[in-house]
Design a protein that fits this description.
Number of strands: 0
Oligomer: single chain
Radius of gyration: 25 Å
Number of helices: 3
Helix content: over 70%
Structural class: mainly alpha
Length: 135
């Protein structure tokens, strides 16, 4: 069997496994965060979480597929490790970048929600003052 094909197979197995693991971890631990961002609406948080996971899979698996072929030919065991280290390193950087982008966006939504909650007065107004009556 051609060593380039072996490299492709190893790359695909590891990349897909990493993508699935990261997506499941983000989905599992992101539920609480999303519920807070969405003001406790669990049903909406679950729907948004699912949509984020689907988008995460599409972007990352699409990148993994596009990055599969790089034009080089692997001729020995060292070539396998060289190609895999480069390919998997880039995939890990993309996964990390996607994760940081999601956290950044969700944190912006969360901060906006906190600001909206803090705009309401802690107690309702007790009455009205007429202009000039306070002097």
């Amino acid at each position: 069997m051609d060593l380039t094909v072996v490299t492709y197979v190893i790359y695909l197995v590891i990349s897909v496994a990493l993508t699935v693991w990261v997506a499941r971890t983000l989905s599992h631990h992101g539920r609480v965060f999303l519920a807070d961002v969405l003001k406790g609406d669990e049903k909406l948080a679950e729907a948004v979480n699912h949509l984020l996971v689907v988008g995460f899979y599409l972007v990352n698996l699409g990148f993994v597929a596009l990055y599969l072929q790089d034009g080089s030919t692997v001729t020995d065991a060292r070539g396998i490790f060289d190609a895999l280290s480069t390919k998997l390193g880039v995939v890990l950087l993309v996964l990390g970048g996607m994760h940081l982008g999601n956290v950044y966006a969700l944190n912006k939504f969360r901060r906006r929600g906190i600001m909206e909650r803090e705009q309401t007065p802690p107690v309702p107004p007790q009455g009205w003052l007429t202009p000039g009556a306070g002097a």
